[in-house]
Amino acid sequence: MKIHVGPVAVPELEEAVRAAGAELGSAEEASALVWFGAGPERFAEFAHSGIEWVQLPAAGIESWVESGALRGGIRFTSAAGTYAETVAEHTLALMLAGTRQLHTMARAGRWEQPEGIRSLFGATVGILGAGGIGRALIRLLAPFGVRVLAVNRSGKPVDGADRTWAADDAEGVRELLTGSDFVVVAAPATAATAKLVDAGALALMKPDAWLVNVARGSLVDTDALVDALAAGRLGGAALDVTDPEPLPAGHPLFSEPRALVSPHTANPKSLLIPALARRVEENTRRYLAGEPLLGEVDPAAGY
Amino acid sequence: MKIHVGPVAVPELEEAVRAAGAELGSAEEASALVWFGAGPERFAEFAHSGIEWVQLPAAGIESWVESGALRGGIRFTSAAGTYAETVAEHTLALMLAGTRQLHTMARAGRWEQPEGIRSLFGATVGILGAGGIGRALIRLLAPFGVRVLAVNRSGKPVDGADRTWAADDAEGVRELLTGSDFVVVAAPATAATAKLVDAGALALMKPDAWLVNVARGSLVDTDALVDALAAGRLGGAALDVTDPEPLPAGHPLFSEPRALVSPHTANPKSLLIPALARRVEENTRRYLAGEPLLGEVDPAAGY
Question: Which of B80, B133, B173, B244 is the most exposed place for a label (fewest CB within 10 A)?
Answer without folding.
Answer: B244
